[in-house]
Amino acid sequence: MTKIGQIIIFAIVFLFSLSFGTVSSQIDSVKSELSKVRKQIDNLSAAEKDISSQIDGMDKQISLLNSLLDMFQRRIDSLNMAISALSDSAESQREEWLAHSDELKKVLCEMYVSGEVPQWELFFVADDVNSLSEALVYFGALADARNKKISASKTAFDKYSGTVKILQASRDSAQIVRAQKRTAKDSLYAANIQRKAKLQKIRGSKEEFVKLVARLSSSLKNLENMLAVERTKGGKFSKMKGHLPCPLGKKCAIAMKFGTVRDEKYGTYFSNPGVEIASKSGQKVFAVADGKVANIIWLEGYRNVVIVKHDGGYYTIYGNLDKVSVSSGEKISAGTAIGKVSGNSWLQDKPTLHFEVRHGKNKENPAVWMGSV
Predict the structure, then answer these.
(1) How do the domains of the chain map onto residue ranges?
(2) How confident is the model at residue 182 (pLDDT cuts 50, 70, 90)?
(3) pLDDT one-digit tens code per residue, 135-148
(4) Which homologous superfamily does the CATH classification assign to the domain defined by 230-369?
C-alpha cells in the first residue's frame, strides 16, 4: 500500500472515531429523553384519563424512536466504512509482513549456506589482509541485514495484528448496533399500534373527541402567540400570492380545508388556521419561499412545527413533521428541505402536512396563495 493510501485509510478511521463519539452522545441523549416520555405515558395510562396527553406522549415517543433509528443507521454506515478501510489496510499490512518474512528467510538461508564463522577464526583462514577485510564486511553485512529484516518483519506483524484487533472490534460493534436498531424498530411498531388504538378510542366517544378538538385549538392558540403582530405592505413575499409552490414539491391535494370545518360524525366544529395537505409518511417538505427559521417547536397535536418568517411580516408554518432538517435562526431559500412528514395526524386517518400562511397573527388561506392546488 502506498503512503498516500495509508494516510487516507487512517484519516477515515480517525474521522470515524470522532463521528462515532458524537453519534453515541446523541443516542444517549435521545434514550434518556425516551425514558422520560415512556414514564409520562405510563403514569397517564395508569390514571386512565387525559387520553389526548397520552397520544401526545406517544407522538413524542414515535418521533424519538425515529430519530434513534436514524442515529443507529448513521453509526452502522460509519462502522461499515471503517470496516472496509480497515480490511484493506489489514490485507496490505499482511502482504507487507509476508514480504518481510520472505526476505528474512532469504538472508537466513544465505547465512546458513555461508556458514557461521567466528570473526577470530577469519584471521587464520584469510589469505591476506584484503581477504580478511572483505570477509569481515560480508559477514557483518549479513548479520546487519538479518537484524534489520527481523525488526521489519516484527514491526509489520505487530501493525497487522493491531489492525486486525481493531477490525474485529468494529465488526462486533456493528453487530451490537444492528441488534439495537432491531429493538428500536420493534418498539416503534408497538408504539404506532398503541397510538392507533388510543385514537380509535377517542374517535369512538363524542366526549373524548370534543376534548381532543379543544386541545388542538389550544395548541394553535399557543402557536399564534409566538408570532409577531407587526405587518408591512409590499415586499417580495406578498407578490407571490397565487403563485406559491406546494411545500411537498408537487401539486397539493387538500385533505382538510382552511377555516371552519364540521365533523360529519359528531357535528362538532373546528377552526383550521391552515390546510392539511395529503402526503405520505416520510415525505420531504420544502420551504415555499426565501426566509429565516423563526422557531422550531413541539406542538401538541402537530408534533414538530417549523415557523419560517418572510419579508413584510409574513410567516409560513409547517406542522406534523417527524424529522426537522433546519435549525432555528437559519436563513433558508425557496426549495430548502425543512423536514419530513410524520404519520397520521389527530384528525386524519392518513399522513398530512399542516401548512399555514400568516400575515402577522392574521390567518390567510394557503389554498389562495398556492398556485398548485
Answers:
(1) 3-202, 230-369
(2) confident
(3) 545 555 556 666 67
(4) Glucose Permease (Domain IIA) (2.70.70.10)
**Cα–Cα distance, 173 to 171 (Å, whole number):** 5
Cα 1 from Cα 63, distance rounded (Å): 45
Cβ within 8 Å of residue 74, ≥6 positions away: 19, 23
Q: Are 202 and 55 in contact (CB under 8 A)?
A: yes
Higher pLDDT, 10 or 228: 228
Cβ pair 27, 72 in contact under 8 A: yes
Surface-to-core class of residue 261, CB atoms within 10 Å of its CB (0-12 exposed, 13-18 middle, 19+ buried): middle
Nearest to 367 by CA among 291, 276, 248, 302: 276
Q: What percent of the chain has pLDDT over 70?
A: 76
Q: Are 87 and 199 in contact (CB under 8 A)?
A: no
Q: What is the DSSP string of 339-371?
A: EEE-SB-SS-SSBEEEEEEEETTEEE-HHHHBS
- Provide the angle, in degrees to the nearest 10, between the axes of the packed helices 3-47 and 51-114: 150
**DSSP label at residue 227:** S
Helices (H), the chain: 3-47, 51-114, 119-125, 129-203, 206-225, 366-369
* pLDDT surpassing 80 at residue 318: yes
Averaged pLDDT, 77-84: 80
User: In this structure, what are the phi and psi dihedrals at residue 276, rounded to the nearest 5 degrees?
Assistant: -105, 120
Taking the C-alpha atoms of residue 157 and residue 355, their distance in angstroms, rounded to an integer, is 62
DSSP string for residues in 123-169: HHH-SSHHHHHHHHHHHHHHHHHHHHHHHHHHHHHHHHHHHHHHHHH
Residue 306 pairs with which residues in a beta bridge? 296, 318
**DSSP character for 329?**
T
**Three cell numbers, residue 288:** 415555499
Question: Does 320 have pLDDT greater than 80?
Answer: yes
Please check the confidence at residue 319 and state whether its pLDDT lies above 60: yes
3-state secondary structure of 246: coil
DSSP β-bridge partners for residue 353 = 277
C-alpha cell of residue 195: 397510538
CATH of domain 3-202: 1.10.287
The sign of the torsion formed by the CA atoms of 58, 62, 68, 72 equals positive
Question: C-alpha cell of 204?
Answer: 369512538
